[in-house]
Structures are given as structure tokens and as C-alpha cells.
Amino acid sequence: MDQIHLMQVFVAVGEQESFVGASRRLDLSPASVTRAIGGLEALLGVRLLRRTTRNVRLTEVGRRYLNDSREILASIAEANEIATGGNAAPRGELAVTAPAGYGRFIMPCIVEFLKLYPDVEVSGQFLDRCVNLVDEGIDVAVRIGNLPDSSAKGLRVGQVRRVLCAAPEYLARHGVPRYPADLQRHTIVTTAGVSQSVEWKFGGAGNRTAVRIKPRLTVTSNDEAIDAVLAGLGICRLMCYQVGAALAAGQLQVILAEHEEAPLPVHILHRENHFGSLKVRHFIDLLAASLRTHPYMNHAG
What pLDDT, on the 0 to 100 scale, is given for residue 301? Predict the structure, then answer.
């Protein structure tokens, strides 16, 4: 029995949490997938999956074995790339993640990468949560904010600001706030997914202040919040890249810039032992060059 093949099938089942999904992904019959999993469990003498009529779930042993199998298969792929020489083209699957609002800046790089390398398949996960690179099989991630200690290596590519902005029309009618405390007299728009608190913080270390505000409009999407401030309703706090186009066009105006918190760094992350992968190296090079020169990523005012 080819254990590498069995591990490939197991990884597909574990990631899809479905025998049918794995069979489609691997272009195998469901019966072949079932036999492969049975053979692997018999070979190891452990139960890797719990099957019910409705779903498939990993056992605790299966979860650990899934992570180990991913690493082993990735190492084999990297060894094959090295053996084929430096002129080999990237191939295989590449999993990329970034914050939900950041996807529009990642997608041009993904499209260019796919055009350059026809033997690569990319899956993009643009989510407003911190995706675990190892547990979820992610090769490359874009993160905003200071990095905690982890098994991932980070390449800094820029910084972004959290800005307060409003339409010139609103500011002409209601005046431009000069100090954070002035916001209490203005109409505030907030995004529930980003601004859970009604207390906004300002300033850097040693000069921090907080203002409690009462939003007049709270929405669940940044796009709707931007629409509201573009229509002249009030003031909103968003990441600079989310309103970069509107700022450049003069549709929105940054206020209280001198009271902003320190900019947040932007990093490209990869699993430490995956940077040797040809597809990961090439994609990170392409993405880093794009983000480092993007005006909305390194917005200075």
C-alpha cells in the first residue's frame, strides 16, 4: 500500500470533512476514498475519523495526524522541487488568507500568479478572524497588527492607519472636530464587526486618551458604513485602505489625524518550514512587491 497516497486521501477527507468532497477534490470514486481511509487506519491501528450518517469528524489522534501528514506531504513536494532544479515552475495547491476587506488588494496578485503559473491552484480565505496557519493548512497569510509569538515567520511590507473620516459636506454643515472630545457632539457611524466598544482611543504611548461616543448608526458591514459617511450622515472610524479611494477622490476627509493611534504594521506570514516551497517563495515575492508600493497600504495622510 502506498502510504503517501493514503495520507493524501486522508488530508483531503480531513480538510473537507467529507468523503464525497475528498473524492471530488482528488477525482477518485467515493469507494476508493473509503478503502484508502480504512487501509490507513488499519495500517496505523488507530481511529482517525468519526463517521456518522451526516458528517465526518477528526478524532484527537486524527487531528494531530492531519497536521503531521500536511507537513510530510509538503516536505516531499519541496524535495521534489529541489530535485527538479531551479528552473522548475511552481505547481500544486496554494492556500492564502487575509482580512475580509483586504481581499481586493490580494486578488490582483493571485490572478497574476495564476496567469504566470498554470500548474498552480489557489484557494483564498478572506475572513475577519485570525486563521491558524498550521491547523487550517494555510501557506501564506496577510496580518494587520503586532504579531504574537508563533510558529509563523513574518515579512513586514508596510503599515496602515485607523482613520476618522467624514464627507466634506458633513464637515461644512457641522464643523471640523479639533479634539477627540468634540466627537461627543457629532453624528457617529460605527461598524459592529470592527468597533465592538463605543469607546474610541487616541494618541500614542504616554499620551493616550479615550472618548466614549454614542453612535447614531451601527451597521455590520464596512461598505455600508462608508456609504453612510459618503452620503454626509456623520463620522466613521475605518482602516485607511478601506477608504483610500474615497480619500484620494476628495469624497471623504480625514479628521483628527494628529490624535491617531500609532499605525499598525502589515506582515506577510508563512509557516517556517514552508518558505522553501517554490510556489510559496514566488507568491510572497509577488505579493510583497505589490503591497510595499500600494498607496492605500502605506497611507501617510
Answer: 41
